[in-house]
Amino acid sequence: MESLSAPPPIRRLDPQDPTPAQEAAPATGTNFVAAKRSIAAPQFSIRRMEVDKVSIHYGAKEAVKSVSLPIRQGEVLSLIGPSGCGKTTLLRSLNRLTELTAAAKLTGSIRLDDVDIRLIEPTLLRRRVTMVFQQPNPFPMSIFDNIAYVLREQGSRRVKKKPLEPQVHSALQRAGLFEEVKDNLKHPALRLSGGQQQRLCIARALAAEPEVLLLDEPCSALDPQSTAVIEDLIVKLRDDVAVVIVTHNLQQAYRIADHVAFMYLGDLVEYNSATRLFNSPTQERTREYVSGAFG
Amino acid sequence: MAQSTGDQHSTVEQQAELETGFPGGVVPPEQGNQPPTKAVEGSSTWSLIDRIGLAFCWFLGLLFCAIAAAIVIYLLIQGIQYLKLDQLTTPAASGFTEGETGGFSDAFIGTLILGVAVGLWHGLWVWLVEYGRPRPLARMTELTIEAIAGIPSIVLALFGTVIFTSTALGFLSRTSEGVVFGRSFFAASSMLALEALPLVVASTREGLNAIPRHVREASYAVGKTKAATTRRILLPTARPQIATGGMLGLGRIIGDTAIILVLLGATQNFAPVEGAPFPLDYLRGAGTSLTNFVYEASPTGNLNQPEKAYAAAFVLLMLVLALNAGTDLVHRRAKRVGTWSH
Questions:
Q1: What is the pLDDT of residue B78?
Q2: Which of B217, B222, B241, B340 is best to mutate for the A interface (most A CBs within 10 A)?
Q3: pTM (predicted TM-score)
Q4: Which of chain B's ends, N or C, has fewer CB atoms near its CB within 10 Å?
Q5: ∠A200-A205-A206 over CA atoms, to 5°?
Q6: Domain map of chain B by residue range?
Q7: At A93, which CATH number?
Q8: Domain B83-337 coded CATH 1.10.3720.10
Protein backbone atom coordinates (compact mmCIF):
# COMPACT_ATOMS: atom_id res chain seq x y z
CA MET A 1 0.00 0.00 0.00
CA GLU A 2 3.06 2.28 0.02
CA SER A 3 2.05 4.58 -2.78
CA LEU A 4 4.58 7.17 -1.74
CA SER A 5 7.26 8.99 -3.54
CA ALA A 6 10.61 9.37 -1.81
CA PRO A 7 10.29 11.16 1.50
CA PRO A 8 10.94 14.87 1.26
CA PRO A 9 14.45 15.97 2.14
CA ILE A 10 15.21 17.04 5.67
CA ARG A 11 16.13 20.70 5.82
CA ARG A 12 18.51 21.39 8.68
CA LEU A 13 17.96 24.88 9.87
CA ASP A 14 20.78 27.33 9.83
CA PRO A 15 20.77 29.33 13.07
CA GLN A 16 20.89 32.38 10.84
CA ASP A 17 17.89 31.30 8.80
CA PRO A 18 15.03 33.25 10.26
CA THR A 19 12.04 31.82 8.40
CA PRO A 20 10.46 29.14 10.57
CA ALA A 21 12.59 29.69 13.62
CA GLN A 22 11.96 31.95 16.53
CA GLU A 23 13.08 35.53 16.07
CA ALA A 24 13.48 38.26 18.59
CA ALA A 25 10.41 40.40 18.91
CA PRO A 26 10.77 43.62 16.97
CA ALA A 27 11.35 46.55 19.25
CA THR A 28 8.30 48.41 17.93
CA GLY A 29 5.87 45.52 18.39
CA THR A 30 3.60 45.20 21.40
CA ASN A 31 3.53 41.82 23.06
CA PHE A 32 -0.21 41.15 23.31
CA VAL A 33 0.09 37.79 24.96
CA ALA A 34 1.30 37.56 28.52
CA ALA A 35 2.95 34.18 28.21
CA LYS A 36 6.50 32.95 28.06
CA ARG A 37 7.78 31.01 25.13
CA SER A 38 9.77 28.29 26.78
CA ILE A 39 10.43 26.18 23.74
CA ALA A 40 13.61 26.23 21.78
CA ALA A 41 13.71 26.90 18.08
CA PRO A 42 13.03 23.86 15.88
CA GLN A 43 16.10 21.89 14.88
CA PHE A 44 14.84 20.87 11.48
CA SER A 45 11.76 20.95 9.35
CA ILE A 46 10.32 18.49 6.86
CA ARG A 47 7.31 19.37 4.75
CA ARG A 48 4.74 16.67 5.37
CA MET A 49 1.40 18.01 4.28
CA GLU A 50 0.42 20.72 1.93
CA VAL A 51 -2.99 22.36 2.13
CA ASP A 52 -3.56 23.93 -1.27
CA LYS A 53 -6.45 26.34 -1.86
CA VAL A 54 -8.83 24.23 0.17
CA SER A 55 -12.47 25.30 0.44
CA ILE A 56 -15.05 23.30 2.38
CA HIS A 57 -18.78 23.77 1.94
CA TYR A 58 -21.59 22.55 4.15
CA GLY A 59 -24.45 22.89 1.70
CA ALA A 60 -24.57 26.58 0.89
CA LYS A 61 -22.36 27.57 3.80
CA GLU A 62 -18.68 27.96 3.07
CA ALA A 63 -16.87 26.91 6.23
CA VAL A 64 -13.33 27.18 4.88
CA LYS A 65 -12.41 29.57 2.06
CA SER A 66 -9.43 28.79 -0.12
CA VAL A 67 -6.88 28.13 2.59
CA SER A 68 -3.27 27.24 1.79
CA LEU A 69 -0.87 26.08 4.49
CA PRO A 70 2.23 23.95 4.87
CA ILE A 71 2.40 21.37 7.68
CA ARG A 72 5.89 20.45 8.71
CA GLN A 73 7.46 17.80 10.88
CA GLY A 74 9.74 19.37 13.45
CA GLU A 75 7.28 22.17 14.11
CA VAL A 76 4.03 22.72 15.91
CA LEU A 77 1.40 24.46 13.83
CA SER A 78 -1.42 26.08 15.73
CA LEU A 79 -4.78 27.08 14.23
CA ILE A 80 -6.41 29.91 16.14
CA GLY A 81 -9.52 31.99 15.63
CA PRO A 82 -12.95 32.66 17.10
CA SER A 83 -15.58 29.89 17.32
CA GLY A 84 -17.05 28.92 13.98
CA CYS A 85 -14.09 30.22 11.97
CA GLY A 86 -13.56 26.85 10.29
CA LYS A 87 -10.38 25.80 12.06
CA THR A 88 -11.80 22.52 13.37
CA THR A 89 -13.38 21.78 9.98
CA LEU A 90 -10.01 22.32 8.33
CA LEU A 91 -8.32 20.08 10.90
CA ARG A 92 -10.87 17.31 10.40
CA SER A 93 -10.49 17.46 6.65
CA LEU A 94 -6.78 16.65 6.98
CA ASN A 95 -7.61 12.99 7.65
CA ARG A 96 -10.91 13.01 5.76
CA LEU A 97 -12.95 12.84 8.96
CA THR A 98 -15.22 15.53 7.51
CA GLU A 99 -16.44 12.95 5.01
CA LEU A 100 -18.28 11.16 7.82
CA THR A 101 -20.63 14.11 8.24
CA ALA A 102 -22.32 13.73 4.89
CA ALA A 103 -22.89 17.14 3.34
CA ALA A 104 -19.30 18.42 3.53
CA LYS A 105 -17.78 19.13 0.11
CA LEU A 106 -14.11 19.86 -0.35
CA THR A 107 -12.42 21.61 -3.26
CA GLY A 108 -8.73 22.26 -3.70
CA SER A 109 -6.22 19.65 -2.66
CA ILE A 110 -4.50 18.35 0.44
CA ARG A 111 -1.33 16.39 -0.12
CA LEU A 112 0.44 14.07 2.27
CA ASP A 113 4.04 13.53 1.21
CA ASP A 114 3.06 14.76 -2.26
CA VAL A 115 0.17 12.34 -2.67
CA ASP A 116 -3.35 13.75 -2.80
CA ILE A 117 -5.14 12.38 0.27
CA ARG A 118 -8.20 11.63 -1.82
CA LEU A 119 -6.13 8.90 -3.49
CA ILE A 120 -5.25 7.31 -0.15
CA GLU A 121 -7.70 4.78 1.26
CA PRO A 122 -9.36 6.51 4.27
CA THR A 123 -8.51 3.89 6.90
CA LEU A 124 -4.87 3.95 5.77
CA LEU A 125 -4.80 7.75 5.69
CA ARG A 126 -6.23 7.92 9.20
CA ARG A 127 -3.44 5.74 10.50
CA ARG A 128 -0.89 8.13 8.99
CA VAL A 129 -2.76 11.24 10.14
CA THR A 130 -4.24 10.46 13.56
CA MET A 131 -6.34 12.70 15.77
CA VAL A 132 -6.93 13.57 19.42
CA PHE A 133 -10.24 15.13 20.39
CA GLN A 134 -11.45 17.87 22.69
CA GLN A 135 -13.08 15.50 25.18
CA PRO A 136 -10.85 12.73 26.48
CA ASN A 137 -12.40 9.64 24.92
CA PRO A 138 -10.61 6.44 25.83
CA PHE A 139 -12.51 3.34 24.79
CA PRO A 140 -14.36 1.51 27.58
CA MET A 141 -11.72 -1.16 28.00
CA SER A 142 -8.42 -1.54 29.82
CA ILE A 143 -5.51 0.85 29.35
CA PHE A 144 -3.58 -1.88 27.56
CA ASP A 145 -6.48 -2.77 25.26
CA ASN A 146 -6.97 0.86 24.26
CA ILE A 147 -3.54 0.82 22.63
CA ALA A 148 -3.74 -2.79 21.50
CA TYR A 149 -6.98 -2.02 19.65
CA VAL A 150 -5.05 0.37 17.41
CA LEU A 151 -2.23 -2.10 16.82
CA ARG A 152 -4.44 -5.01 15.87
CA GLU A 153 -5.96 -5.57 12.47
CA GLN A 154 -9.40 -3.86 12.32
CA GLY A 155 -11.86 -5.72 14.59
CA SER A 156 -9.60 -8.70 15.21
CA ARG A 157 -8.37 -9.84 18.61
CA ARG A 158 -5.94 -12.26 17.08
CA VAL A 159 -2.55 -10.90 18.03
CA LYS A 160 -2.17 -12.00 21.63
CA LYS A 161 -1.25 -9.54 24.36
CA LYS A 162 2.32 -10.69 24.90
CA PRO A 163 3.74 -9.84 21.47
CA LEU A 164 2.05 -6.43 21.55
CA GLU A 165 3.57 -5.45 24.89
CA PRO A 166 6.69 -3.66 23.57
CA GLN A 167 4.64 -1.53 21.18
CA VAL A 168 2.02 -0.70 23.82
CA HIS A 169 4.71 0.25 26.33
CA SER A 170 6.56 2.43 23.87
CA ALA A 171 3.37 4.25 22.85
CA LEU A 172 2.62 4.94 26.52
CA GLN A 173 6.19 6.07 27.05
CA ARG A 174 6.05 8.49 24.14
CA ALA A 175 2.90 9.97 25.66
CA GLY A 176 4.65 10.24 29.04
CA LEU A 177 2.08 8.03 30.72
CA PHE A 178 3.95 4.78 31.16
CA GLU A 179 5.53 5.46 34.55
CA GLU A 180 2.13 6.35 36.04
CA VAL A 181 0.21 3.36 34.75
CA LYS A 182 2.78 0.58 34.27
CA ASP A 183 1.54 -1.36 37.31
CA ASN A 184 -2.12 -1.27 36.36
CA LEU A 185 -2.33 -1.62 32.62
CA LYS A 186 -5.34 -3.87 33.12
CA HIS A 187 -7.36 -1.14 34.84
CA PRO A 188 -10.27 0.44 32.97
CA ALA A 189 -9.04 3.44 31.03
CA LEU A 190 -12.09 5.48 31.97
CA ARG A 191 -11.02 5.34 35.62
CA LEU A 192 -7.94 7.49 34.91
CA SER A 193 -7.97 11.22 35.63
CA GLY A 194 -8.93 13.59 32.82
CA GLY A 195 -5.32 14.54 32.06
CA GLN A 196 -4.20 10.93 32.09
CA GLN A 197 -7.10 9.99 29.83
CA GLN A 198 -6.07 12.64 27.34
CA ARG A 199 -2.46 11.42 27.39
CA LEU A 200 -3.78 7.91 26.82
CA CYS A 201 -5.64 9.26 23.79
CA ILE A 202 -2.37 10.78 22.57
CA ALA A 203 -0.63 7.44 23.16
CA ARG A 204 -3.40 5.76 21.18
CA ALA A 205 -2.95 8.21 18.34
CA LEU A 206 0.84 7.66 18.42
CA ALA A 207 0.52 3.88 18.47
CA ALA A 208 -0.46 3.93 14.81
CA GLU A 209 2.98 5.46 14.06
CA PRO A 210 1.49 8.47 12.28
CA GLU A 211 3.32 11.12 10.29
CA VAL A 212 0.93 13.86 11.33
CA LEU A 213 -0.83 14.28 14.68
CA LEU A 214 -3.97 16.41 14.79
CA LEU A 215 -5.12 17.83 18.13
CA ASP A 216 -8.52 19.48 18.45
CA GLU A 217 -8.39 21.67 21.57
CA PRO A 218 -6.86 18.81 23.55
CA CYS A 219 -6.59 20.77 26.79
CA SER A 220 -9.88 22.62 26.92
CA ALA A 221 -11.43 20.06 29.28
CA LEU A 222 -8.37 19.86 31.53
CA ASP A 223 -7.00 21.67 34.57
CA PRO A 224 -3.91 23.93 34.24
CA GLN A 225 -1.52 21.33 35.61
CA SER A 226 -2.58 18.60 33.19
CA THR A 227 -2.52 21.21 30.43
CA ALA A 228 1.12 22.02 31.21
CA VAL A 229 2.04 18.32 31.10
CA ILE A 230 0.35 17.89 27.72
CA GLU A 231 1.90 21.05 26.29
CA ASP A 232 5.38 19.80 27.20
CA LEU A 233 4.50 16.51 25.57
CA ILE A 234 3.31 18.17 22.36
CA VAL A 235 6.54 20.12 22.04
CA LYS A 236 8.55 16.95 22.60
CA LEU A 237 6.60 15.15 19.89
CA ARG A 238 7.20 17.72 17.16
CA ASP A 239 10.45 16.07 16.02
CA ASP A 240 8.76 12.71 15.40
CA VAL A 241 5.48 13.84 13.92
CA ALA A 242 4.11 16.97 12.36
CA VAL A 243 1.79 18.46 14.96
CA VAL A 244 -1.29 20.55 14.16
CA ILE A 245 -3.21 21.89 17.15
CA VAL A 246 -6.46 23.79 17.18
CA THR A 247 -6.78 25.97 20.24
CA HIS A 248 -8.95 28.71 21.69
CA ASN A 249 -6.23 29.55 24.14
CA LEU A 250 -3.95 32.24 22.71
CA GLN A 251 -1.44 31.84 25.52
CA GLN A 252 -1.23 28.17 24.70
CA ALA A 253 -0.66 28.88 21.04
CA TYR A 254 2.06 31.34 21.94
CA ARG A 255 3.70 28.92 24.38
CA ILE A 256 3.95 25.87 22.16
CA ALA A 257 3.46 26.76 18.50
CA ASP A 258 6.24 27.43 16.02
CA HIS A 259 3.82 28.66 13.40
CA VAL A 260 0.36 30.06 13.91
CA ALA A 261 -2.48 30.38 11.42
CA PHE A 262 -5.20 32.85 12.33
CA MET A 263 -8.57 32.10 10.72
CA TYR A 264 -11.63 34.29 10.70
CA LEU A 265 -14.99 33.40 9.12
CA GLY A 266 -13.39 30.70 7.00
CA ASP A 267 -10.57 32.87 5.73
CA LEU A 268 -6.94 32.36 6.56
CA VAL A 269 -6.17 35.90 7.67
CA GLU A 270 -2.57 35.48 8.64
CA TYR A 271 -0.03 32.71 8.75
CA ASN A 272 3.28 33.42 10.39
CA SER A 273 5.74 32.30 13.00
CA ALA A 274 4.29 32.49 16.49
CA THR A 275 6.49 35.34 17.66
CA ARG A 276 5.77 37.43 14.60
CA LEU A 277 2.05 36.79 14.58
CA PHE A 278 1.64 37.66 18.22
CA ASN A 279 4.17 40.49 18.44
CA SER A 280 3.89 42.23 15.11
CA PRO A 281 0.81 41.05 13.25
CA THR A 282 0.58 42.37 9.72
CA GLN A 283 -3.22 42.29 9.55
CA GLU A 284 -5.53 44.55 11.51
CA ARG A 285 -7.90 41.65 12.32
CA THR A 286 -5.08 39.58 13.77
CA ARG A 287 -3.97 42.53 15.88
CA GLU A 288 -7.50 42.98 17.23
CA TYR A 289 -7.94 39.26 17.91
CA VAL A 290 -4.66 38.64 19.71
CA SER A 291 -5.13 41.80 21.75
CA GLY A 292 -8.56 40.55 22.82
CA ALA A 293 -10.63 43.08 20.89
CA PHE A 294 -12.97 40.36 19.65
CA GLY A 295 -13.46 36.62 19.64
CA MET B 1 -48.93 22.71 60.46
CA ALA B 2 -51.14 22.49 63.52
CA GLN B 3 -52.37 26.05 63.34
CA SER B 4 -53.85 28.11 60.52
CA THR B 5 -53.93 25.43 57.82
CA GLY B 6 -56.74 27.40 56.29
CA ASP B 7 -54.48 30.35 55.61
CA GLN B 8 -54.14 30.03 51.85
CA HIS B 9 -52.06 33.17 51.49
CA SER B 10 -49.16 32.30 53.71
CA THR B 11 -45.95 32.62 51.78
CA VAL B 12 -43.34 29.92 51.40
CA GLU B 13 -41.16 31.76 53.93
CA GLN B 14 -43.97 31.83 56.45
CA GLN B 15 -44.61 28.15 56.01
CA ALA B 16 -40.92 27.39 56.26
CA GLU B 17 -40.86 29.46 59.41
CA LEU B 18 -43.64 27.34 60.90
CA GLU B 19 -41.62 24.30 59.86
CA THR B 20 -38.31 25.22 61.40
CA GLY B 21 -39.38 27.67 64.07
CA PHE B 22 -36.88 30.27 62.81
CA PRO B 23 -37.60 33.44 60.89
CA GLY B 24 -37.75 32.85 57.14
CA GLY B 25 -37.07 29.17 57.65
CA VAL B 26 -33.34 29.90 58.03
CA VAL B 27 -31.79 27.87 60.78
CA PRO B 28 -29.01 29.81 62.56
CA PRO B 29 -25.69 27.99 62.35
CA GLU B 30 -24.98 27.73 66.06
CA GLN B 31 -27.25 28.17 69.10
CA GLY B 32 -25.44 27.81 72.35
CA ASN B 33 -24.36 24.22 72.81
CA GLN B 34 -27.02 22.89 70.46
CA PRO B 35 -25.61 21.19 67.37
CA PRO B 36 -26.84 23.06 64.25
CA THR B 37 -30.09 21.68 62.83
CA LYS B 38 -29.94 20.84 59.15
CA ALA B 39 -32.35 22.88 57.05
CA VAL B 40 -34.18 20.57 54.63
CA GLU B 41 -36.98 21.03 52.17
CA GLY B 42 -40.04 19.40 53.72
CA SER B 43 -43.09 18.36 51.75
CA SER B 44 -45.25 20.17 54.31
CA THR B 45 -44.38 23.40 52.50
CA TRP B 46 -45.93 21.96 49.33
CA SER B 47 -49.40 22.84 48.09
CA LEU B 48 -52.28 20.52 48.96
CA ILE B 49 -52.53 19.09 45.42
CA ASP B 50 -48.81 18.27 45.40
CA ARG B 51 -49.13 16.54 48.73
CA ILE B 52 -52.08 14.48 47.55
CA GLY B 53 -50.05 13.51 44.49
CA LEU B 54 -47.14 12.48 46.66
CA ALA B 55 -49.37 10.37 48.90
CA PHE B 56 -50.92 8.73 45.83
CA CYS B 57 -47.48 7.85 44.43
CA TRP B 58 -46.46 6.31 47.74
CA PHE B 59 -49.69 4.35 47.90
CA LEU B 60 -49.34 2.96 44.37
CA GLY B 61 -45.66 2.18 44.84
CA LEU B 62 -46.25 0.25 48.03
CA LEU B 63 -49.26 -1.50 46.48
CA PHE B 64 -47.19 -2.71 43.53
CA CYS B 65 -44.44 -3.88 45.86
CA ALA B 66 -47.00 -5.79 47.90
CA ILE B 67 -48.57 -7.42 44.83
CA ALA B 68 -45.20 -8.44 43.38
CA ALA B 69 -44.01 -9.77 46.73
CA ALA B 70 -47.26 -11.70 47.19
CA ILE B 71 -46.94 -13.38 43.78
CA VAL B 72 -43.29 -14.30 44.25
CA ILE B 73 -43.71 -15.55 47.81
CA TYR B 74 -46.85 -17.53 46.98
CA LEU B 75 -45.16 -19.16 43.99
CA LEU B 76 -42.01 -19.83 46.00
CA ILE B 77 -43.98 -21.63 48.71
CA GLN B 78 -46.21 -23.57 46.32
CA GLY B 79 -43.43 -24.22 43.81
CA ILE B 80 -40.84 -25.51 46.24
CA GLN B 81 -43.50 -27.66 47.83
CA TYR B 82 -44.44 -29.45 44.61
CA LEU B 83 -41.31 -29.19 42.50
CA LYS B 84 -39.38 -32.41 42.13
CA LEU B 85 -36.17 -32.41 40.17
CA ASP B 86 -37.22 -35.41 38.11
CA GLN B 87 -40.03 -33.30 36.69
CA LEU B 88 -37.36 -31.39 34.81
CA THR B 89 -35.96 -34.58 33.33
CA THR B 90 -39.02 -36.66 32.53
CA PRO B 91 -41.34 -35.82 29.65
CA ALA B 92 -45.09 -35.70 30.02
CA ALA B 93 -46.91 -39.01 29.44
CA SER B 94 -50.49 -40.17 29.33
CA GLY B 95 -51.79 -41.88 32.41
CA PHE B 96 -54.35 -41.78 35.15
CA THR B 97 -52.38 -41.08 38.33
CA GLU B 98 -50.02 -38.24 39.03
CA GLY B 99 -47.04 -40.57 38.97
CA GLU B 100 -47.90 -41.87 35.52
CA THR B 101 -48.21 -38.51 33.81
CA GLY B 102 -44.54 -37.65 34.23
CA GLY B 103 -42.94 -34.21 34.35
CA PHE B 104 -42.54 -31.30 31.98
CA SER B 105 -39.02 -31.68 30.60
CA ASP B 106 -40.20 -31.15 27.03
CA ALA B 107 -41.95 -27.95 27.97
CA PHE B 108 -38.88 -26.74 29.86
CA ILE B 109 -36.51 -27.51 26.99
CA GLY B 110 -39.03 -26.07 24.56
CA THR B 111 -38.93 -22.74 26.39
CA LEU B 112 -35.13 -22.79 26.32
CA ILE B 113 -35.12 -23.58 22.58
CA LEU B 114 -37.46 -20.68 21.93
CA GLY B 115 -35.23 -18.35 23.95
CA VAL B 116 -32.09 -19.32 22.04
CA ALA B 117 -33.84 -19.21 18.68
CA VAL B 118 -35.23 -15.76 19.38
CA GLY B 119 -31.76 -14.59 20.43
CA LEU B 120 -30.41 -15.72 17.06
CA TRP B 121 -33.18 -13.89 15.19
CA HIS B 122 -32.30 -10.77 17.12
CA GLY B 123 -28.71 -10.90 16.02
CA LEU B 124 -30.05 -10.50 12.51
CA TRP B 125 -32.37 -7.66 13.43
CA VAL B 126 -29.76 -5.66 15.35
CA TRP B 127 -27.45 -6.06 12.40
CA LEU B 128 -30.18 -4.72 10.11
CA VAL B 129 -30.72 -1.70 12.33
CA GLU B 130 -27.03 -0.77 12.72
CA TYR B 131 -26.19 -1.24 9.05
CA GLY B 132 -29.54 -0.12 7.71
CA ARG B 133 -28.62 1.14 4.24
CA PRO B 134 -29.97 2.69 2.13
CA ARG B 135 -31.51 5.25 4.49
CA PRO B 136 -35.14 5.12 3.23
CA LEU B 137 -35.15 1.35 3.69
CA ALA B 138 -33.78 1.72 7.20
CA ARG B 139 -36.42 4.31 8.03
CA MET B 140 -39.12 2.00 6.69
CA THR B 141 -37.77 -0.84 8.81
CA GLU B 142 -37.94 1.39 11.87
CA LEU B 143 -41.53 2.40 11.15
CA THR B 144 -42.47 -1.23 10.66
CA ILE B 145 -40.91 -2.19 13.96
CA GLU B 146 -42.81 0.58 15.73
CA ALA B 147 -46.01 -0.67 14.12
CA ILE B 148 -45.31 -4.22 15.27
CA ALA B 149 -45.03 -2.99 18.86
CA GLY B 150 -48.79 -2.44 18.95
CA ILE B 151 -49.90 -5.74 17.43
CA PRO B 152 -51.39 -8.32 19.86
CA SER B 153 -49.55 -11.61 19.81
CA ILE B 154 -52.61 -13.57 18.67
CA VAL B 155 -52.69 -11.47 15.49
CA LEU B 156 -49.02 -12.19 14.91
CA ALA B 157 -49.81 -15.86 15.45
CA LEU B 158 -52.54 -15.83 12.79
CA PHE B 159 -50.27 -13.96 10.43
CA GLY B 160 -47.59 -16.58 11.06
CA THR B 161 -50.06 -19.33 10.23
CA VAL B 162 -50.71 -17.76 6.85
CA ILE B 163 -47.02 -17.50 6.10
CA PHE B 164 -45.79 -20.83 7.41
CA THR B 165 -48.55 -22.94 5.90
CA SER B 166 -47.52 -21.78 2.42
CA THR B 167 -46.08 -24.59 0.31
CA ALA B 168 -42.80 -22.76 -0.26
CA LEU B 169 -42.05 -22.80 3.49
CA GLY B 170 -42.90 -26.47 3.95
CA PHE B 171 -39.27 -27.20 4.80
CA LEU B 172 -39.71 -25.25 8.06
CA SER B 173 -42.42 -27.50 9.44
CA ARG B 174 -44.06 -30.88 8.88
CA THR B 175 -45.56 -31.73 5.51
CA SER B 176 -47.92 -34.56 4.80
CA GLU B 177 -49.19 -35.35 1.31
CA GLY B 178 -48.66 -31.81 0.13
CA VAL B 179 -50.32 -30.25 3.17
CA VAL B 180 -48.03 -27.95 5.16
CA PHE B 181 -48.68 -28.04 8.92
CA GLY B 182 -47.03 -24.69 9.59
CA ARG B 183 -46.50 -25.53 13.27
CA SER B 184 -42.91 -25.78 14.40
CA PHE B 185 -40.22 -24.20 16.52
CA PHE B 186 -39.11 -22.33 13.40
CA ALA B 187 -42.54 -20.79 12.89
CA ALA B 188 -43.16 -20.00 16.56
CA SER B 189 -39.71 -18.55 17.25
CA SER B 190 -39.78 -16.26 14.23
CA MET B 191 -43.11 -14.75 15.26
CA LEU B 192 -42.02 -14.55 18.91
CA ALA B 193 -38.88 -12.76 17.77
CA LEU B 194 -41.06 -10.31 15.90
CA GLU B 195 -43.08 -9.78 19.05
CA ALA B 196 -40.04 -9.07 21.21
CA LEU B 197 -38.25 -7.08 18.52
CA PRO B 198 -39.54 -3.58 19.38
CA LEU B 199 -38.31 -3.95 22.96
CA VAL B 200 -34.88 -5.12 21.87
CA VAL B 201 -34.51 -2.56 19.13
CA ALA B 202 -35.65 0.34 21.30
CA SER B 203 -33.18 -0.28 24.08
CA THR B 204 -30.35 -1.18 21.71
CA ARG B 205 -30.87 2.05 19.84
CA GLU B 206 -30.94 3.95 23.12
CA GLY B 207 -27.65 2.34 24.11
CA LEU B 208 -25.97 3.13 20.80
CA ASN B 209 -27.23 6.72 20.79
CA ALA B 210 -25.86 7.29 24.28
CA ILE B 211 -22.31 6.84 22.96
CA PRO B 212 -20.87 10.29 22.17
CA ARG B 213 -20.10 10.90 18.51
CA HIS B 214 -16.49 11.75 19.24
CA VAL B 215 -15.94 8.26 20.62
CA ARG B 216 -16.92 6.70 17.28
CA GLU B 217 -14.78 9.28 15.52
CA ALA B 218 -11.84 8.45 17.79
CA SER B 219 -12.04 4.92 16.48
CA TYR B 220 -12.32 6.05 12.86
CA ALA B 221 -9.45 8.48 13.48
CA VAL B 222 -7.04 5.63 14.13
CA GLY B 223 -8.00 3.98 10.86
CA LYS B 224 -10.73 1.61 12.02
CA THR B 225 -13.60 0.69 9.73
CA LYS B 226 -17.25 1.10 10.65
CA ALA B 227 -17.59 -2.66 11.09
CA ALA B 228 -14.61 -2.87 13.46
CA THR B 229 -15.87 0.13 15.44
CA THR B 230 -19.33 -1.38 15.77
CA ARG B 231 -18.06 -4.75 16.84
CA ARG B 232 -15.30 -3.73 19.23
CA ILE B 233 -16.47 -0.35 20.59
CA LEU B 234 -20.17 0.31 20.04
CA LEU B 235 -21.76 -3.06 20.78
CA PRO B 236 -19.61 -3.75 23.87
CA THR B 237 -20.39 -0.26 25.18
CA ALA B 238 -24.10 -0.66 24.56
CA ARG B 239 -24.03 -4.13 26.15
CA PRO B 240 -26.01 -3.15 29.28
CA GLN B 241 -28.85 -1.69 27.23
CA ILE B 242 -28.77 -4.61 24.78
CA ALA B 243 -28.94 -6.96 27.77
CA THR B 244 -31.89 -5.03 29.20
CA GLY B 245 -33.68 -5.19 25.87
CA GLY B 246 -32.92 -8.88 25.54
CA MET B 247 -34.19 -9.48 29.05
CA LEU B 248 -37.44 -7.61 28.41
CA GLY B 249 -37.84 -9.39 25.08
CA LEU B 250 -37.12 -12.83 26.48
CA GLY B 251 -39.40 -12.14 29.42
CA ARG B 252 -42.15 -11.34 26.98
CA ILE B 253 -41.69 -14.42 24.81
CA ILE B 254 -41.27 -16.76 27.76
CA GLY B 255 -44.63 -15.55 28.97
CA ASP B 256 -46.41 -15.68 25.63
CA THR B 257 -49.10 -18.31 25.10
CA ALA B 258 -51.06 -17.31 22.00
CA ILE B 259 -48.22 -17.90 19.55
CA ILE B 260 -47.33 -21.18 21.29
CA LEU B 261 -50.88 -22.45 20.94
CA VAL B 262 -51.27 -21.47 17.31
CA LEU B 263 -47.81 -21.85 15.84
CA LEU B 264 -46.04 -24.39 18.04
CA GLY B 265 -48.94 -26.81 18.13
CA ALA B 266 -49.00 -26.93 21.94
CA THR B 267 -48.49 -30.68 22.02
CA GLN B 268 -47.58 -32.38 25.30
CA ASN B 269 -44.28 -33.64 23.94
CA PHE B 270 -41.83 -32.93 21.17
CA ALA B 271 -43.01 -34.23 17.82
CA PRO B 272 -39.82 -34.40 15.75
CA VAL B 273 -40.11 -34.82 12.01
CA GLU B 274 -38.88 -38.29 11.10
CA GLY B 275 -36.03 -38.55 8.64
CA ALA B 276 -34.63 -35.04 9.15
CA PRO B 277 -31.05 -34.60 10.53
CA PHE B 278 -30.76 -34.09 14.30
CA PRO B 279 -31.42 -30.50 15.34
CA LEU B 280 -33.66 -29.87 12.35
CA ASP B 281 -36.05 -32.72 13.11
CA TYR B 282 -36.97 -31.15 16.45
CA LEU B 283 -36.98 -27.57 15.15
CA ARG B 284 -39.31 -28.51 12.29
CA GLY B 285 -41.60 -30.41 14.64
CA ALA B 286 -44.30 -29.17 16.98
CA GLY B 287 -43.68 -28.82 20.71
CA THR B 288 -44.70 -27.05 23.87
CA SER B 289 -43.47 -24.51 26.38
CA LEU B 290 -43.73 -23.96 30.11
CA THR B 291 -46.55 -21.41 29.83
CA ASN B 292 -48.56 -23.88 27.81
CA PHE B 293 -47.82 -26.61 30.33
CA VAL B 294 -48.98 -24.38 33.17
CA TYR B 295 -52.19 -23.75 31.25
CA GLU B 296 -52.72 -27.45 30.57
CA ALA B 297 -51.96 -28.42 34.16
CA SER B 298 -54.22 -25.78 35.64
CA PRO B 299 -57.78 -26.76 36.60
CA THR B 300 -59.11 -25.47 33.25
CA GLY B 301 -56.62 -27.47 31.19
CA ASN B 302 -56.71 -31.08 30.00
CA LEU B 303 -54.19 -32.29 32.54
CA ASN B 304 -55.81 -30.66 35.57
CA GLN B 305 -52.96 -31.17 38.04
CA PRO B 306 -52.53 -27.82 39.79
CA GLU B 307 -49.51 -29.03 41.78
CA LYS B 308 -47.56 -29.50 38.58
CA ALA B 309 -48.79 -26.17 37.36
CA TYR B 310 -47.29 -24.58 40.47
CA ALA B 311 -44.02 -26.40 39.98
CA ALA B 312 -43.79 -25.37 36.32
CA ALA B 313 -44.77 -21.78 37.15
CA PHE B 314 -42.03 -21.76 39.77
CA VAL B 315 -39.47 -22.87 37.18
CA LEU B 316 -40.74 -20.17 34.84
CA LEU B 317 -40.34 -17.56 37.56
CA MET B 318 -36.83 -18.75 38.31
CA LEU B 319 -35.92 -18.41 34.62
CA VAL B 320 -37.12 -14.82 34.59
CA LEU B 321 -35.29 -14.02 37.84
CA ALA B 322 -32.12 -15.59 36.43
CA LEU B 323 -32.46 -13.35 33.37
CA ASN B 324 -32.82 -10.35 35.67
CA ALA B 325 -29.76 -11.33 37.65
CA GLY B 326 -27.76 -11.78 34.44
CA THR B 327 -28.75 -8.33 33.20
CA ASP B 328 -27.85 -6.85 36.56
CA LEU B 329 -24.41 -8.45 36.33
CA VAL B 330 -23.82 -6.90 32.88
CA HIS B 331 -24.86 -3.50 34.21
CA ARG B 332 -22.60 -3.75 37.21
CA ARG B 333 -19.61 -4.77 35.11
CA ALA B 334 -20.26 -1.84 32.78
CA LYS B 335 -20.37 0.50 35.77
CA ARG B 336 -16.96 -0.73 36.86
CA VAL B 337 -15.53 0.15 33.45
CA GLY B 338 -16.88 3.71 33.74
CA THR B 339 -18.16 6.13 31.14
CA TRP B 340 -17.29 9.43 29.48
CA SER B 341 -17.86 12.73 31.17
CA HIS B 342 -20.44 13.63 28.51
A1: 87
A2: B222
A3: 0.75
A4: C
A5: 95
A6: 83-337
A7: 3.40.50.300
A8: yes
